[in-house]
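Weekly sync notes, structure subgroup
Attendees: PM, AL, DS (notes)

Item 1: joint prediction request from the bench team. They want all four components modeled as one assembly rather than separately. Inputs as received:
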Amino acid sequence: MAKVLLFGRLADVAGWRERELVLPPSLTSLRDRLAGEDPALGAALSGPGVQAAVDQVLTRGDAALAGVSEVAFLPPMSGG
Amino acid sequence: MAKVLLFGRLADVAGWRERELVLPPSLTSLRDRLAGEDPALGAALSGPGVQAAVDQVLTRGDAALAGVSEVAFLPPMSGG
Amino acid sequence: MITLSSDAIDPGALLNGFCAGRAATGAVASFTGLVRDEGGEARALELEAYAGFAETAISKAADAAAARFDLQDVLIVHRLGRVEVGEAVVFVACAAAHRRAALEACDHLMDYLKSRAPFWKKSHGPGGARWIEPTDTDLADARRWDQETT
Amino acid sequence: MITLSSDAIDPGALLNGFCAGRAATGAVASFTGLVRDEGGEARALELEAYAGFAETAISKAADAAAARFDLQDVLIVHRLGRVEVGEAVVFVACAAAHRRAALEACDHLMDYLKSRAPFWKKSHGPGGARWIEPTDTDLADARRWDQETT
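Output from the run, pasted for the record:
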């Protein structure tokens, strides 16, 4: 089992912020699975500027998820 | 009578910070008179970056001193 | 030092603590970000961070800024949760031997926090709530520092 | 507001006073200049101003900066007399709607104070006292802002 985290408006769209899941083998397949369950979340995840962090490392494109314990989806960041 | 003010190292060189004088007609003649009384002050007054303020207005070159109540000689400024 | 907390920020206490006991420091620059009322459109901000990841990411950015600007010390305090109009949402202080480095480092770190640190913020106003994303200016501001290193 | 005084500067109290009650302000930048020990070469600075003229000149510079950077408020507090190592010799704060303006205005005003405001300073150390004149960098820093207005 691993944690999947949603932040900002992604959490508002999905109605959850954190779930325990058995991860599929890749980030792309995780996105596809989340989109299949919730098309609105799927659209939000493929929106402009949404990044993924795999075990707290920002990841471009696809990534293998074997042995990974935390995947987070991050909409455009804005602090301060 | 008018006030003549010296600041920073000019006051150290001259040994005074403020004097009451009957002003000569021009800034140049005032510089000449101060230099005549105290050649070390004269040299300091003609050093690099020394400015004059006539009635608290910075003045380039010569200036008439009729009616003036305060002349200050300012070495290079540095605050902060 | 990096602190993320839902406690109120006291910029003055932070500044005095940061300035204390510095015989070799000539310059302390600080930046305090306050919540604006946006002409009545905003009542509060709500700040969310990616806990754990945020502290690590901001520490790396602070260390990089310290090396780049030759800083003697950096302090970053960022508020989480609901922050009312007029309250401080962020406080950054940089200490250096000379003033330009301290001021530029504050500028750089604020640009980083505005568009590259894992925070998300919602503005609550009379018309409801909305997520605030970095503006084009924020993104361009952050890119300035990328260009300067190449 | 401009204050020249031989009283100790409390940067934190000044910053909190400056930040208080600002619903329209998003950004407060501050600069605190501290007296350095210069590796043991300095024990204190002694600051002299042209009283009357200094307040007028600094007020004009602050008003010009407020117009140029679209500031909501400016505070400048400058110490006079003897200032020991580790104490603040100057505090500048600028409030603006946005951060870049506030930071640039602090930078600009410090450049002004360093080489164009009627202050003179003497450094007292174990080897005696010497007058400090603006460095070439100080003079070049101040000229940057002249060029940008032409």
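Discussion: Residues 2-138 of chain D form a domain with the Aldehyde Oxidoreductase; domain 3 fold (CATH 3.90.1170.40).
Action: AL to compare against the crosslinking data before next sync.
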